[in-house]
Amino acid sequence: xxxxxxxxxxxxxxxxxxxxxxxxxxxxxxxHNWKVDVEVDAxxxxxxxxxxxxxxxxxxTREITDGLDHRNLNDLPPFxxxxxxxxxxxxxxxxxxxxxxxxxxxxVRAVTLWETDRACVRYTEDEPA
Length: 129
Ligand SMILES: Nc1nc2c(c(=O)[nH]1)N=C([C@H](O)[C@H](O)COP(=O)(O)OP(=O)(O)OP(=O)(O)O)CN2
Ligand SMILES: [Zn+2]
Known about the structure:
By secondary structure, this protein is of the alpha+beta class. It has a single domain (5-124), classed as Tetrahydropterin Synthase, Chain A (2-Layer Sandwich), CATH 3.30.479. The chain is built from two helices and five strands; from the N terminus they run ββαβαββ. The protein has helices at 54-65, 86-101; strands at 5-17, 30-42, 71-72, 106-116, 119-124. It has a five-stranded mixed sheet with strand order 3-1-2-4-5. Strand 4 (106-116) and strand 5 form a beta hairpin. The chain is elongated. Zn(2+) binds at residues 17, 30, 32.
């Protein structure tokens, strides 16, 4: 049996957005306090007995979300061309985090983006066969 450890951190940021071509009030500028849950898998432990230090996951996440905080997402790449839906934001965060954290032992498993307390998207990617 192979051990797998999944670390999860949560952080948040505040940002405005509006949805292009959306038939409803979300096509007007409005804001959310977005919550971000990041799940990271490790296939083993380091010399300290950690999969990945929670602090390292938080630091990598905040490095990205600091650029989104108190901004209008529609003004920022890639959301100046890609609709800033929870789906697209979660996928974007997953890609940016994977570049920072993935290595031979560590994989970003999922990013869950909470748009409100009642609605979230969880983004994952299938491993290539
Ligand atoms: N699958 C998705 N659905 C919706 C998204 C999205 O990103 N992905 N986004 C929105 C809007 O951004 C909107 O701001 C959120 O709307 P809603 O969930 O209706 O938020 P409310 O707080 O108004 O919800 P109530 O629970 O009805 O009060 C819409 N859909
Ligand atoms: Zn919204």
